[in-house]
C-alpha cells in the first residue's frame, strides 16, 4: 500500500509513518513536508492508496491537495490532520470529501482505530516467499516488539516525571524501539545539523519524552509487528537472544576498557536486525495467505538478511560508526585496527561460546585485555 503523508512537522510525520506501517503490512510511505513537495509527487505520476494531509502548511493549505486528489479519485481514503478542532473547520474539510478528521495533538489510539477501519486488509497475491521479500525490500519495515500498550499508556500518564535517561534505561534492550527512535531522531538531526544521533538517550532528548512515548505506543499497537507463526516466533526469539547476548558482552568489554557502554550495547542489540526484518516480512507473507516450510524459512533468512540489514541501516540513517560496529559482529577484516570493531567482534565470539578460541584471545590481546572474560552467566529477560 502506497501512502502519502503531507506534514510539515517532521517528528509528527515520522509518527504518522509508524502508525501507517503498523496497520498495513508492506506499506510504502512518501513523506512530504510542504504543499509544493506533495504536488511534485503527484505531478511525477505517483498515485497513492491513502493520504494523510495536514491543513496548515508553510506554503499553502492542505485542502488544495484534497481538492486535487478528489478531482481524480472519489474513493481513495483521505484523512485530514489539523490543529483546528472547531466545528466550522471540520465541516469545511468534510465538504471537500475527506474520509476522516484527526486533531492535534494526536491521539495515537484513536488514529490507529480510524485508519484500521479505512484501510482494507492486505492480500498477498504473491507467488513465493522469495518474490514477496524482493517486493517488500523497499517498503517500511518495523521490527517485531514485545512492548505492551498498557505499559506505554502508564508511562504517558507519568511523562512529566520521566527523563530521557530514564526512558533510555527502560528501553535499552528493545531492538525494535531503539531502531525506530534512532531512525526518527536521525531524520530530524540530519536536516538540522547534518550530524547523526548515536545513542538512544540522545534520540529521546532530540525528539522529547512525549514524542518518544507516542512512537512507543504506535509500535505497541502494531498488531502486524507481533510474530504469529510459532515457527517464525521461535526463530525471532532465538535471534533476539543472540543479539541480546552480544549486546551484554560488548557492554562488559566496554566497561573494562573504561569506555561508555551505550553505543556498544546498541550495536549488539541491532546486530540481528536483518534476520528479524526478514522474519517480520515472512510473518506478513503467511498472514496474507502464503505458505512456508522450515527449509524455505532458512533459505530466505540466508539469502535476504544481509540485504534487509543493509537496507535498514541506511533507511534508518544509523551513524556510519554504528553501522561498522554492527557489521563487525559478523565479519572483521584482518587489517582492521578500530578498537570499537575489535570489541564487537570479540563480544560476538564470547556470546557464541568461543571465548577460548584463538581468534577471540587474539582480539582481546589487541584491545589490551589479556585475561579471559568473566564466564558469569548473564541474566535473561530482566527489564527495568
Describe the structure.
The protein has helices at residues 10-23, 35-43, 62-72, 87-95, 108-118, 129-136, 149-157, 164-171, 175-193, 200-207, 209-220, 230-256, 262-269, 273-287, 294-315, 320-330, 339-351, 358-366; strands at 2-6, 28-32, 50-54, 56-57, 60-61, 78-82, 100-103. Helix 6 crosses helix 14 and helix 16 runs parallel beside helix 17. The strands form two sheets. Strands 2-1-3-6-7 form a five-stranded parallel sheet, sandwiched between helices. The longest helix is centred in the middle third of the chain and has 27 residues, at 230-256. The protein has 384 residues and is an alpha/beta fold. The radius of gyration is 22 Å and the shape is globular. Pfam families: HDOD, Response_reg.
Q: Provide the low-confidence segments as ranges.
A: 373-384
Largest sheet: 5 strands, parallel
- Taking all Cα atoms into account, the compactness measure Rg is 22 Å
As laid out across the biggest beta sheet, the strand order is 2-1-3-6-7
Q: Helicity range of the residues?
A: 55-70%
Q: Helical segment tally? A: 18
Structural class: alpha/beta
Secondary-structure element sequence? EHEHEEEHEHEHHHHHHHHHHHHHH
Strand runs, count:
7
Mean pLDDT level: 87
Shape from CA axes? globular
Strand content: 5-15%
End-to-end separation: 37 Å
Organism: Marinobacter alkaliphilus
Keywords: Phosphoprotein
Protein name: HDOD domain-containing protein
InterPro entries: Bact_response_regulator, CheY-like_superfamily, HDOD, Sig_transdc_resp-reg_receiver
